[in-house]
Design goal:
The complex is a heterotrimer of chains A (293), B (196) and C (174).
Chain A: E1 5-13, E2 17-25, E3 28-37, H1 40-53, E4 57-62, E5 68-71, H2 76-81, E6 89-93, E7 98-102, H3 103-112, E8 118-120, H4 123-129, E9 134-141, E10 145-153, E11 156-163, H5 168-175, H6 180-187, H7 191-202, H8 205-217, H9 222-240, E12 248-253, H10 261-269, E13 272-277, H11 280-292
Parallel strand pairs in A: 1-4, 4-8, 9-12, 12-13
Antiparallel strand pairs in A: 1-2, 2-3, 5-7, 6-7, 9-10, 10-11
Chain B: E1 15-16, E2 19-20, H1 21-84, H2 86-92, H3 98-105, E3 110-122, E4 126-137, H4 140-150, E5 156-168, E6 171-183, H5 186-195
Antiparallel strand pairs in B: 1-2, 3-4, 4-6, 5-6
Chain C: H1 18-103, E1 109-115, E2 119-126, H2 129-143, E3 146-153, E4 159-166
Classes of the chains: A alpha/beta (293), B alpha+beta (196), C alpha+beta (174).
Amino acid sequence: MWFIKRNFISFIEEEKFKLLKEVFKKDKIIEKETKEFEKKEELDSFVKEELDEIPQTYISTITFTLNQGVMDSCSKQKYLEHEIDYDNVKIVCLGNYSFYISLFDLQKIRKDYPYLDFIYPPFAIIDYLAKEKENIFYVLIFEKYLVVLAYEKWIPIFSDIIETKESEENLENVEDIEDIEDIEEIDTIDDLSEDITEDIDAIDEEELEEKLEEIENKATGIEAKILQFIQDSLKEYYANYSSDFIEKIILFDTIGIDEKIANIIEEEVLIECTYKKIDALEIINRISRESVL
Amino acid sequence: MKKIKIPQIKIPKIKIYGIDVIKNFLFLTLFIFLTLLMIAFIIAPSIKYFKKNQKTYYETKNEFLQTKAIYDRTLKSLNQLKRKDAKIIAAFRREFDKKNFINFASKFMKVTNIEKNETKIYKNDFLTTIYFVNALIKSPKNFYDFIDALKNYKYILKVYFPINFEKNGNLIDLKLKIEHYRLKNLKALKAEVKAH
Amino acid sequence: MKAYYSFIKPKKKPLFKEDTKLWLIFISISMFLYLSFGAFLLIKAYIFKKETNELKQQIISLNEQIKELNLQKEFILKQETIYTDIMTKNQLVKQQIRNLLDLIPDPITLEKFYIDHNKLIIYGITPTKDVYNLLMLPPLESIFDKTTTYFYELPNGWYRFKSINYLKSENEKD
């Protein structure tokens, strides 16, 4: 009905609670607001107020629990083959592939946030945005998490999530990278990469140093982590999932890192890489809105 | 529904004990407005229309009752009249029968001849037929009794001039004219009476 | 294709807030009551109107019937009048004849008389002309406008007479 307001609120729990509120009247957005909360109580009370104010308020979030993933089928058989306890996961079937989450984790989220209407896996954002779906690697970048989803032939067959600020140790490890060569030595599998490293070596080292410094100046070293993550994921992908070569890597960035990351990755893994800045909260709201309509 | 462009005006929120004062006030205003609108455009005209019809109904009803009373009275008086004049009414409906008359008259006289003469319309609704009667009587008293007896006779007969008395031995030879009265249009009248 | 990625289903959301709902229900019920009251009145009014029309129709038909009854009444009265008139006239005839016969004095013998509306002819025998002229003529003259008498002498010296009497007026004629 034309006079009914619908309020879509999405939030993600990272360093802070980031929240986006969009109020629609029919198909028109009439109010848009972003908020950040330090504490869960603040979020709870805000949501409560919103629910009180506009009855048609839908609350969505993404869960970053590591106990979730993608399966290239909806069948129980397939799950059992991959040694996943079919009875203890919640599955969202999307035709010939599905996302799953540990029931226990899902219950925990629902208990923590009883007002939630939609709980999405982070892969949903990728799957929603993905247009090319043949031998493509999608990487979704969050403040605290990195998410990968790989499509073989129109079907996502591989997924992974890592926490980037998990522990100080890890952080230090990354920060401690003094030489890119070290990484290369660890990472490169075939002789081909030797050549690449050679090439990279050939590039002005100072320049590289500068780049690194830049990265380090951001105090996160996130680019390095992303690179590392991609390399690890590719390794895993080739080893366990598919023998087809990945043709393209697409980065979806939700936090606003340097666009040059695409170039770095392209140089490092020798796969075409594109970068795209996205607003995860807005996309979640969009998905929720389409589900409700 | 047609979409109306409403400029986005932020209505300030004032809450007292968790009750949105402005919203409730607006709803109350809407309610009062709609109520007044309903009264003005639906209830008031309805009442007016209703009262008008009710008034004419009772007026008509009154008129009807009066008319009905008149009808009843008229019918009653008509029936009384019919009862009172039943004999007369019946008599006017009978066709004249000579034999019957001779028989009736024999108590008073000896009818020697009876002759039918002309028939005329009388006062639009009646027919009169003249009969010439020749009879023998013993005395004038027979004649007087005959006339008195006509009152109760089943036909309406008028004894008519000229009357001729002539002595014939011991008897009197009587010549007289009688007129029989009856309704003109018997059949039509019967049908009409039945219809009522 | 719509994609439903969520692990859970959204809760049912009411369209309106609780207090708004109450207001809307209250206003709707009020409007409904107003409308039904209006409709009730209109229906009632309609029924009144219909009945009024029926009554009007009945009044017209009653009036016609009354007219008819009055005609019948009049007709009966007319018959009654005629009847009474006839009987009265019969009595009158009887009376006239009786009067006439009473008029005849003893000495005079009547042989024949003819009576009409305005005319009386008497045939009779009288012992003398004087008896007739004294006893019979005066009352005849007093009744009739014109009286003419003819005498024929009989062999025994009595007189056979014929008296013709006229009334000028034709009052008797009906």
